[in-house]
Amino acid sequence: DNFYETDTAIKHTASVFGHADYKITDDWHISGGLRYSHNELTYHFDHPGLLIIPTPFTVDEHRIDWLASTSYQIVPDTMAYFSVSTGSRPPGITTIVNTAQQLSPIPAETLTAYELGYKVHTPTGFTYDSSLYYYDYSNEQIDANVLVNGNSFGLTLGVPTQLYGWENGVRWAIDRSDSLELELALEHSKYVRFNF
User: Fold this and answer.
1) How far apart (Å, rounded) are the C-alpha atoms in residues 137 and 111?
2) Per-residue model confidence as pLDDT tens digits over 14-56
3) pLDDT over 90 (residue 2)
4) How far apart, in whole angstroms, are the C-alpha atoms of residue 71 and residue 67?
């Protein structure tokens, strides 16, 4: 059967944030931040010739994210730091449907990130950055194809995911116009479980 799409989506987003730094000593600093966000998405499903859903479908989210970090200047050209923060991707709507009952929300993607790092920046033009990180997603949004009664359709799942790794970067400014850069990154990720 032939059909065409005249769907409309209306999105409203508002946020406010604040950040503060405090110097405990000349070498030791701490920082913190808060972010409040409101996201609303309204979807009008209109596929003449296939399916028309007269009632708009809406997802709405109010969320607070935060950041806490600390850094220490070991020597004038060497610093170590640690940070923990949260973040999110707003919820969405599954729009590949054949019935009104299949129109459903996609959970918000939420993340808690941990990072431990080390930085060396010397006056001679040599820099070295290294960091260990761990990301914990409670609902990473991934696309999947599902087979039901011989019919395949796509949907977006919220999947708990863990990701961690080690990143390194070395740069040597040989002179004003030439530099040498080396990078090494090791990363591992896994889906903890699939929620259908």
Assistant:
1) 4
2) 999 999 999 999 999 999 999 999 999 999 988 887 788 888 8
3) no
4) 13
Enumerate helices (H) and strands (E) in the chain, giving the number of each. Answer: 0, 12
- Say how far apart CA 21 and CA 32 lie, in whole Å: 7
Say how far apart CA 41 and CA 84 lie, in whole Å: 29
Tell me how far CA of residue 71 lies from CA of 47, 111, 160, 187, in angstroms: 55, 22, 30, 24
CB 42 within 8 A of CB 14: no
**What is the rounded average pLDDT of the residues 78-106?**
87
**Exposure on the CB side of residue 115, measured as CA atoms within 13 A:** 19
Asked if 98 contacts 153 with a C-beta cutoff of 8 angstroms, the reply is yes
Q: How high does pLDDT run on average in the chain?
A: 88
**What is the C-alpha to C-alpha distance for residues 19 and 17, in angstroms, rounded to an integer?**
7
Give mean pLDDT, residues 103-130: 91
Contacts of 134 (CB under 8 A, 6+ apart): 113, 114, 115, 162, 163, 164
d(CA 129, CA 169): 5
Could you give the angle at the alpha carbon of 68 between the alpha carbons of 66 and 74, nearest 5°?
Answer: 160
